[in-house]
From TrEMBL:
PANTHER family per the UniProt record, alphabetical: ASCH DOMAIN-CONTAINING PROTEIN (PTHR42250:SF1)
Annotated ranges, domain ASCH: 1-97
Protein name as annotated: ASCH domain-containing protein
Pfam families: ASCH (PF04266)
InterPro entries in alphabetical order: ASCH_domain, PUA-like_sf
Length: 179
């Protein structure tokens, strides 16, 4: 999720990276959500890990800031309670393709909670998958489910990844059952 104030910088190339609290797993691309929409798909060139205290001006400039102090102030506003010894992921982007899609596009047009409810009824799931999908269905929000399950919004990406996975599984399941 990217604050709407940074979307123009991302699309113009001024913002060539993003710094996120914690360890973010590297994917080939990142789907950028902002304001309830998918606004871009970015190629991921690299993911590096540092402690907040180790961030430097180069990291700040990649993320569209003038200097490291400005970056750290922004991180402290966004992640209340972040400490200098916390690990952050620096996700470096290559090409960025602007798109304008509804947030539910990746879920076959279903809202996340609708997809979760369908998956709970139709798929064989692990206990953890069932627990996560049940939270999405109950709270009708990926954000609220992340807070209830993990204590913060930072794990939304993992929940979205699971939702995309079950959407693909359901798509195959529905195609095979209609034959």
């Amino acid at each position: 999720m990217l604050s709407s104030r940074y979307v123009a910088d991302l699309l113009s190339g001024k913002k060539r990276a993003t710094v996120r609290l914690g360890i973010v797993r590297r994917d080939r691309e990142a789907v950028i959500h902002s304001g309830g929409r998918i606004v871009a798909v970015a190629e991921v060139l690299d993911v590096r890990y540092k402690r907040v205290a180790e961030l430097d001006d180069f990291d700040a400039e990649l993320d569209g800031y003038s200097n490291v102090e400005e970056l750290k102030r922004a991180l402290r506003r966004h992640y209340r309670g972040i400490k200098d010894d916390d690990v952050v992921s620096i996700i470096v982007f290559g090409s960025v393709k602007p798109v304008d899609l509804p947030d539910d596009w990746a879920y076959g047009g279903l809202k996340p909670y609708e997809l979760a409810e369908l998956a709970l009824r139709r798929l064989e799931l692990t206990e953890e998958e069932r627990r996560v999908l049940a939270a999405v269905a109950k709270y009708k929000s990926v954000r609220r489910a992340a807070v209830k399950l993990y204590g913060s919004v930072e794990r939304r990406r993992a929940i979205r990844r699971l939702l995309r996975t079950v959407a693909r599984r359901l798509s195959g399941d529905l195609r095979s059952s209609s034959r």
